[in-house]
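Hi C.,

You asked whether I'd gotten around to modeling the 552-residue construct. I have! Everything is below, sequence then structure, no commentary in between.
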Amino acid sequence: MTNSRSIKFAKDKITGEYLAADKIFDVRRVGFDYRLKYNREEIQPYCVECGEKLIISSSKYQNIHFKHSESDVPCILKENLSPEEKDFFSRINYAKESERHIYLKNSIGAMLLTSKNVSNVRIDDHFIYDGYEKRRPDIYCEFLDKKIVFEIQLSQLSQKYILSRYDFYKKKGIYLIWLLDDLNIVEGTSQMERDIKYLSSHQNYFKFDENSDSFYLECKYKSTQLSSWNEFYDEWNTVRIDLNCLNFDNINNEVFFYDFSKQKSLIEEIQRKNHIEEQNRKKEEEKKKRLKQIQWKVNAICNEIGEIRNSLVKNFSIIKNKLFDFDYEELSQLNKKLSIDSKFALQRWLKSADNESFNFLKFIFENYDFVYDINIVDLEGNTVLDILFKRKDLKNKDLIFELIVKRGYKINDKDEKHLFDFWKDYPEVAENIIMLSNFAKKFEDPFLRGYLFQFKNIIRIIESAKQGKIIGYAYKDNEWIKFANNALNSNAKYWEYIEIAFKHYGLYEKLILLDKKGSFRNKLNQYYAIPEKTDHSFKWIFNELYPELAKL
């Protein structure tokens, strides 16, 4: 029977005596005596939770118990509680009338009465209403413009009980301060201890300081610290405070001394910054370590280049293979060390070149891992071509010139004069080279510039047809048949492209009219009798130079 009773305690309004249901009703004769007294109005029991009048009633099994009257006044004891919750509320109500509880609430109330800026102090006699719902706190007072209630916690509290108080006072805009009799409870591991702990987002807990002549609280709060390893750890601190030290959280209706959430956020920000600084420090160390490794690698390959340059063989293929494995950062440091532009190294290398330097220069001009401006002018106003053509004793100038143009050099009028001077006995060669070099100015792609010189013979044939004059050959102006016969005889595998150009630019009809002896037609017949397979590797540069022919 004991566990079935929801109301375990009542208070007699006449005598002030507390009536324990399990004690007075478990003996049926005693229970009926109390029911008789109730009906004679010799006792007036009321609920210690909501303050409403109670009825002493008998069930159909003649079990005597307290019950609420049929009213709309809400009370948590009217709810369908579990046996465990009934026990919780029973112990709470019993504890509220213990000597310890009475002593504490009277002592706290007395000290609040003499505290500055505190008014309207009520001790266990003040109900706070919200419609039909009401609560009677242990102590109520007003501090400055804030309404505060103190609830003394001596026994185990259920979460349901805790939340019923917390939610009610929050809705009324009243600040609830739980006063714990044992502050060590917040460091415990039971469910109730966890419920108490997480009631407050600030994790501040209070105990009445009984050893003071005025109102003071012991506040136990959790703070977050950072270890020397930049890791969190929490520690509990205790401080003695008065009401003036309290802070009021208007959003959560909480009272606190130390703002755990705010301080933790600040610590988290410090941790984040420390982490970033540590990461940056490690990155900087890795960067320095990496830079040393790169510098070693760069110095090693520069030494190898120098050794091969000074050797008899001058085979740079092994260097090309090693450069292929260089990443972006390594190539960047290599170019920084070489500083080809700032040191005007191209002009310097050409000045000091001998007839054995061609492989080195070819390696420098053809390797696009080396970053430099081929058109740079040195302090004396010399381009690389100025230096090249001043070297009267240097062999392979024509091949070096091609390498320079393929690299992206843009020739000017002065360079054209250099070329005609160099090819003074073969002006048609100079003319062809100048034409190709001017075409090269149009291309940013080094591979297309390379194709120009690879197909220079075909290009001068097509360009002759386009311009209506023989370019790049030592033929006379009217020797078109010789020109065409040579074009077909020497470039049969590209004749498909040449023929398209001849027909489009009108040279084909002109050749038929000029071919009095039929030599050109004979060449054509021989070609068509056994046509040579067309080499279409010319197609890329053909489409770029002559888009009007590519559509045909």
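If it helps when you're writing up: The CA atoms of residues 160 and 433 lie 97 Å apart.

Thanks,
B.
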